[in-house]
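Table 4 source record.
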Amino acid sequence: MQTAADRSKFEPFSGPKGARMSDFSPEYLAYLDRWVQDDLTYVPERLLTLLRMLELQWEGMEVNQLQHSLQTAALAERSGAGDELVAAALLHDIGKVVSNSNHPSISAEIIRPWVSDDVHWIVKVHQDFQGSHYFALMGVDPMIRRRYVGHPAYGLAEQFVDEWDNAAFDPNMDTPPLEHFEPLVRDMFSRAPRRPDHWKPAAP
């Protein structure tokens, strides 16, 4: 994790800085970009830290949220899913560290720069798909997933939820430790993130 000591990693910028971003010089912006690029090296460890925090969340269940995440990822891996889907299965509930109510959107946006559009979408809508297993008890349409029929990843989202997420609350499951997935997290999230799709090159 980045610490205060890391502030001395680069030589201090000696030119004028400006009190507003609109006043930043090209030279100062280039200097700041070195920090932005360096900050990316901390992403894998931050994700692993957030996953470890899920161990404290039980929510009345027989497994804590870290165990649930590990089980979801293990089921995806055992079914032959690719690395992106396994990583998404591991991290699909990471947003619960911040908020349970909108955790799918939080989780999806955290991983978005490193996964495909379809995998991002699956994580974003996974609770709507999971609702078929419990929404009726809450007075909510249990088949709310049907609004997404026609999406190219609809079938994969069904598999993600019905075969992996839904089945990952078993205290007796042979569950790998987080260390099993650490190499995947470190490899995938050490890659250069893609820019947002709407960031188009500036006009000449």
